[in-house]
Amino acid sequence: MATSKHTPAQDLPAGMMPFFRFGDVRNAEWLVRQPAAGSDAIGWYVPAGFPAYVLIRYPARQRSNAYQVSSREWVLITQAAYMRAIAQGRTDVAPPIEHHFLMEQPELADAVLNILSPRAKRSENRMLQCAFWEGSSCHGCGAPLFRTPQEGFHLFEAPERSLLRWLVDQGDRQSPRWNPDLAGQEPPCMIWPAGRGWCLVLTYSYSFGVVACSQALAEEILRIPGLDASPVELDDSLSKW
Questions:
Q1: Backbone phi, psi, residue 212, to 5°
Q2: Contact yes or no for 185/167 (Cβ under 8 A)
Q3: Which of 74, 146, 191, 223 gets the highest tally of CB atoms within 10 A of its CB?
Q4: Residue 156 host element (H or E)
Q5: Band (4; pLDDT cuts 50, 70, 90)
Q6: Using CA atoms, how far apart are residues 128 and 109, in angstroms rounded to an integer?
Q7: C-alpha–C-alpha distance, residues 16 and 240, integer Å
Q8: How confident is the model at residue 180 (pLDDT cuts 50, 70, 90)?
Q9: With DSSP H G I counted as helix, E B as strand and the rest as coil, what are the percentages for the chain, rounded to 5?
């Protein structure tokens, strides 16, 4: 497998935050060895082997980039409406795509991330691994590619403090650090630390994210006031959510 290539910021794909660097795909070998899962199961997107899983539903957005096509116009669509339409055999429906974690709920995003990586202990010298789906804006970027039984991903890494702050700020239009030029930049599909104590999964085609972690971390996340979250199992159907 390829070795790490710390690519200068100017060589990264257009629109990517400058703190991203090409990763070392050896850090993703645990994902390559994942068992295959059914395409309608949570386990299709989320890695196995963690004691607990928490599904976090995103809020309905006032400004969405995903729509349901009607005969006369485009209208806002929710994940529930999308799943009902697919079950009815509709072909004129586009899935809701959420580009950012808990968009417009930055205080909840910050609370979740603070449990996974306490703010006071974050470091610019500690890197988090970041997997971007191969069909995202990273397509053709030259970053190391690895494949799970389900899909292919480009691997990057980013400093813990900068990455987690960006995840919160880009979902908060009121933040002084919000960058409208990067509003369409997808977050990574998967983020995890070197010790793999947790993995944050941000699906591009569903209105939820999933945290894979210890039971203790899961219980803390489920206690966050106002967070729409539920414990899930890998074999739970995606259509349930």
A1: -100, 125
A2: no
A3: 191
A4: strand 152-159
A5: very low
A6: 17
A7: 33
A8: low
A9: 25, 20, 55
Is the pLDDT confidence value at 213 over 60? Answer: yes
- The better pLDDT of the pair 192, 73 is held by 192
Structure tokens at 232: 């899930």
The amino acid present at 39, given as its one-letter code, is S
How many whole angstroms separate alpha carbon 82 and alpha carbon 101?
Answer: 20
Phi and psi of 206, rounded to 5°? Answer: -135, 155
Residue 52: its H or E element: strand 52-57
More confident residue, 237 or 240: 237
**Beta pairing partners, 208:** 57
Which of these, 29, 38, 26, 23, lies nearest to 150 by C-alpha position?
Answer: 38
Q: Is residue 189 within 8 Å of residue 202, measured between CB atoms?
A: yes
Output the six-digit token pair for 155.
Answer: 């691997």
**Which residue, chain included where needed, has tokens 């607990």?**
52
Output the pLDDT for position 80. Answer: 61
* pLDDT, the chain, mean: 78
Residue 140 CB contacts under 8 Å (≥ 6 apart), including other chains: none
Exposed e or buried b per residue across 34-70, where buried means at least 16 C-beta atoms within 10 angstroms of its C-beta: eeebeeeebbbbbbeebebbbbbbbeebeebebebee
CB 192 within 8 A of CB 54: no
**Residue linked to tokens 């739970």:** 236
What whole-number distance in Å separates Cα of residue 102 and Cα of residue 57? 8
C-alpha count within 13 angstroms, C-beta hemisphere, residue 49? 11
State the residue for tokens 């400004």.
63
